[in-house]
């Protein structure tokens, strides 16, 4: 089997120490020749400028194809479109368009006054500019706000029809979850690529809590596996083995692209990529 195409998600740094970690992560993973990398947008739009700066700097310094995440939270349409114009002016052509999570402490999503009320509205506005390749989020385990699993698929169809070219999924723990979701998408007439989001687990307790907040189902066998691995000090080995195994199953099921949630820690992602045959590509000029 050939190596998959990979892409990586980063988050914008909020301190000097975090900046060093981000650059270390980019430097470690850029040689793996990702098809794109993306930079998240803090909940509630809190990293508006940092996201922009990280996107522009990574693009300029590493020549990578960088996608900026953008959400509808706490911004008017005019403010959001101003950010969008800033990206276009900086030569950014890729956006991951999301409704967004509300700021900490808020009780669910409330559209800002004069703001985009949904991801579909944001996607329509982005598509109308004709300047961006738009990717969107998708939820194999069902988004916590979705009435049913089918409602999620129907909503994804609306997002693709509004102008998105591909979807990146929330992380999940079993390949079968992705395959069932992909089947439902195909049945609903979605023909855009659906890229699985892969989360190599650095810390099981944190990952588990995060999963529960996102609606990602936690299988009992995973709890047991991590309990045993933690006892033996083999958490990292287990994480690499599990992510590699799941990615291999996805590849065998016809998946060509894998998107890694790096959390700005490159080691596990690099190990999983290596196990999948994704090796650094050095330019001839660098080795000659
Ligand atoms: P949507 O697809 O718009 O909504 C999620 C589900 O809720 C839908 O599938 C549908 O079932 C239901 N729903 C929502 N609105 C409606 C409606 N109007 N009518 C009917 N049903 C509706 N969050 C951030 O804050 N910053 C980020 O950078 C970020 N990056 C992400 C990247 C990826 C790949 C993913 C998968 C998620 C990311 N998130 C991010 C989290 C995301 O913002 C949250 O999951 C949010 O709650 C939903 O955003 P969405 O655009 O994916 O949802």
Explain the overall architecture.
The protein has an eight-stranded parallel β-barrel, surrounded by five helices. By secondary structure, the chain is of the alpha/beta class. Strand 1 (5-10), helix 1 (16-29) and strand 2 (36-39) form a beta-alpha-beta unit. Helix 1 runs parallel beside helix 10, helix 8 runs antiparallel to helix 9 (235-252) and helix 9 packs across helix 10 (266-275). The mean pLDDT is 95. It contains eleven helices and eight strands. It is globular, with a radius of gyration of 19 Å. Bound molecules: flavin-adenine dinucleotide. Residues 40-41, 43, 69, 71, 96, 98-101, 118-119, 137, 139, 143, 145-146, 151-152, 155, 168, 170, 197 line the site of flavin-adenine dinucleotide.
Overall mean confidence score, pLDDT: 95
Strand order of the largest sheet: 1-2-3-4-5-6-7-8
Number of helices: 11
Rounded to an integer, what's the Rg over CA atoms? Answer: 19 Å
Q: Which structural class best describes the helix and strand composition?
A: alpha/beta
Return the string of H and E elements: EHEHEHEHEHEHEHHHEHH
**Percent of residues in helical segments?**
40-55%
Instruction: Give the number of DSSP strands.
Output: 8
The major pleated sheet works out as:
8 strands, parallel, barrel
Question: Which residues form runs of ≥5 with pLDDT under 50?
Answer: none
- What is the strand content? 5-15%
Ligands, deduplicated: flavin-adenine dinucleotide
């Amino acid at each position: 089997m050939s190596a998959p195409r990979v892409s990586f998600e980063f988050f914008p740094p909020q301190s000097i120490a975090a900046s060093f970690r981000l650059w270390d992560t980019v430097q470690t993973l850029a040689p793996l020749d990702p098809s794109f990398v993306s930079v998240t947008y803090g909940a509630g739009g809190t990293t508006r400028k940092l996201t922009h700066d990280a996107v522009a700097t990574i693009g300029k310094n590493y020549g990578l194809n960088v996608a900026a995440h953008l959400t509808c939270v706490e911004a008017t349409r005019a403010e959001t479109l101003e950010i969008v114009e800033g990206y276009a002016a900086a030569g950014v052509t890729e956006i991951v368009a999301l409704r967004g999570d509300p700021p900490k402490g808020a009780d669910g999503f409330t559209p800002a006054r004069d703001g985009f009320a949904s991801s579909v509205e944001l996607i329509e506005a982005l598509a109308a500019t004709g300047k961006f390749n738009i990717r969107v989020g998708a939820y194999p385990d069902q988004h916590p706000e979705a009435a049913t699993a089918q409602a999620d698929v129907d909503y994804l169809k609306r997002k693709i029809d509004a102008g998105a070219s591909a979807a990146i999924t929330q992380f999940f723990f079993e390949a079968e979850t992705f395959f069932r979701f992909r089947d439902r998408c195909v049945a609903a007439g979605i023909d855009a690529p659906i890229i699985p989001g892969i989360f190599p687990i650095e810390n099981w307790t944190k990952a588990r809590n995060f999963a529960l907040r996102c609606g990602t189902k936690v299988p009992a066998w995973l709890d047991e596996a991590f309990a045993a691995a933690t006892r033996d000090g083999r958490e990292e080995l287990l994480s690499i083995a599990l992510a590699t195994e799941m990615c291999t199953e996805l590849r065998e099921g016809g998946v060509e692209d894998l998107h890694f949630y790096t959390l700005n820690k490159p080691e596990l992602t690099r190990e999983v990529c290596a196990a999948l045959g994704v090796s650094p590509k050095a330019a001839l000029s660098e080795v000659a």
